[in-house]
Structures are given as C-alpha cells and as structure tokens.
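Allow me, if you will, to draw on your knowledge of protein folds for a short while. I have a record of one protein: its chain in single-letter code and its fold written as discrete structure tokens. I remain grateful for any guidance, and I place the record below:
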Amino acid sequence: MCGIIGIFNHPHAFKQTKKALALLRSRGRDGVGASNFDTVVQGKIVSRLPALSGDSCVGHMLHAVVSRVLQPLKKSKGVLVVNGEIYNWKKLSKKYRFSVKNDAEMLLHFIDRFGMGRIDQLDGVYALAYWDRSSNGETVTLARDLLGEKPLWYVHEQGHFAFASEKKILEKLGYEHISELHPRQILVYDVTEDSIRYLLRDFFTCLPEHPDNYSMILKTTERLLAKAIDKRVPQKKLGLLFSGGLDSTYLAHYLHKKKIPFTC
C-alpha cells in the first residue's frame, strides 16, 4: 500500500504536495519523493524534501513490496507514480527486454513504450498517474486496475487539477467537488488546455456459461485458485490474517500443503 498525490496548474503545487505527503504517511514509511517533472527529489522524511519550483507537482509515499525503489520514477518521456503490485512484471520485462529492479520500474518502461494501448496486458492491482511531456503537448493520465482494487480520487475545479489515493487528502487541501475514478475509465488531463477526456476500457464477461460437468469445473476452479494464490505469495515469510472462515482456512491449508512459511 503506497500513497500517490498530484497537483497541477496551482501556484503552490509543491507546498500542497508536501502537505498531502505528510497526511499520506500511514500509506508508506519506506521513503518519500516528489517531482516537478524536470527534477525528482527523494528521501526518508517529508519535511526534508528540497523545495521544487513550478505550478505542477506529483508525490509518492513508498511501502516497498518488491525491492525498495523510490518514486516518482522518470524516464525521457514521462514521470510515473503508482500504488500497486504487478504480478507478471518479470514476464513482461523478459518479453520486452526491460532491465528493471521491480514492477514499478517495469511499468514506467512499459508506458513509455506503449502508452495505455496495452495496459490490459498487466496482471495486477494498481492506481497510477503518468505525466507526459512531448511535442504533442503535456498530459497526465490516470488509470486503475479493472476491478478498482486500488483507490484513486481526483478533482478539477477553478483551473486546478489534483488526484490522490484518498478522498480526505483532497478535502484537507481545500477541494470540494471530488470524484472517484471509475476503474473502467482512463482519465487524460490536458495540462495546457486544462481539460479532461475519458477513454473507455473493455471489461471481462462471464458469458457464455461453461458446458463442462461439475467435476471438471471443480478441478478448473482449484487450478485457477492455486494460480491466484501463488502469484500473490511474497518471497519471504508472510503473515496470514486468520479469521477461521472458509477463505482464510483454505489459504492456511494451501500454504501449509505447499510448505510456504507463514504465521497466522
């Protein structure tokens, strides 16, 4: 769980970003960073971040899951902040020959190369903002995983645009007309024109119904469930929140059967 924030077309963009990062501290204690696009500053404590100029800024609070790579991340084309976990990042890195340390770095390379055109190749949960400056103009793109596992809120009022992981952060910054980004939409904010457009994403369907018999469906479900668990298990000892209900009991049984060390 990380925290992301962005303020655009605001005379006190860095000051607001810094205030938001302090409020987002509970979402990540492994590092903090901010960027005005040209410069990225990073550190351990929000109050010690060097000041950034400009009327736009993004920030990130890190809770490291895969390696400790501080954000925002920047390449030649854009700046990325993301809260999430991409389960197939190693597979995509190998496929496209990215040299990266973790899923966030892979995501930056991925969007730099393909934009949002291949985002459905991502297997994971995420809320991201990609800030792009090119000969075609300056835009900020917001996107979430299709089921909306990771939260993302935004506001566009009085010539300003802002986004954050939590609605209350934007409220404490003084914004009022705050909306949650629909996970089946990609939001594109044109920084120069101060305008928003939305791109619709395809959603999956459960139809048609499977013609297989009950025994076959049971085996398929077990295989898919095992695959879903395996990709989420970290490469070190983990804690399982055990309620004693069906879900957590099955998870405990599966981890024990696979000899994966864990503590309930």
Observations:
- Helices lie at 13-23, 89-96, 103-114, 167-172, 214-230, 246-257.
- Residues 214-230 form the longest helix (17 residues).
- Residues 10 and 158 are 10 Å apart (CA to CA).
